């Protein structure tokens, strides 16, 4: 199973939605809460190509995007193959 990293903030509803989708697919992930670890925010922005909003999601180091991007990838049928790799 690929490694999944999600940068979040605790009060972010989109972060919760993204995590819910991953959990529904039984995907384990590393969560980095930039509210608790503010020094990781710069890391997230750099990895996400300048995007500053949360969540930012990475599958095997590949930037997927935010919550809407994750759900769009799932609707298009592209998420499951990425998670099965």
From TrEMBL:
Keywords: Cytoplasm, Disulfide bond, Electron transport, Redox-active center, Transport. Residues 4-64 form the Glutaredoxin domain. The keyword Hydrolase does not apply. One of its GO terms (biological process) is cellular response to oxidative stress. GO terms for cellular component: cytoplasm. GO terms for molecular function: glutathione disulfide oxidoreductase activity. It holds the Pfam family Glutaredoxin. Has a glutathione-disulfide oxidoreductase activity in the presence of NADPH and glutathione reductase. Reduces low molecular weight disulfides and proteins. Belongs to the glutaredoxin family. NCBIfam families: GRX_bact. This is Glutaredoxin. It comes from Hansschlegelia zhihuaiae. The gene is grxC.
């Amino acid at each position: 199973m690929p490694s999944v990293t999600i940068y979040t903030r605790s009060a972010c509803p989109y972060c919760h939605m993204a995590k819910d989708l991953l959990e529904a697919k039984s995907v384990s992930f590393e969560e980095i809460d930039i509210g608790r670890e503010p020094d990781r925010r710069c890391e997230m922005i750099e990895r996400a190509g300048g995007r500053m909003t949360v969540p930012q999601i990475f599958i095997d180091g590949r930037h997927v995007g935010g919550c809407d991007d994750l759900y769009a990838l799932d609707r298009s049928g592209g998420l499951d193959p990425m998670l099965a790799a």
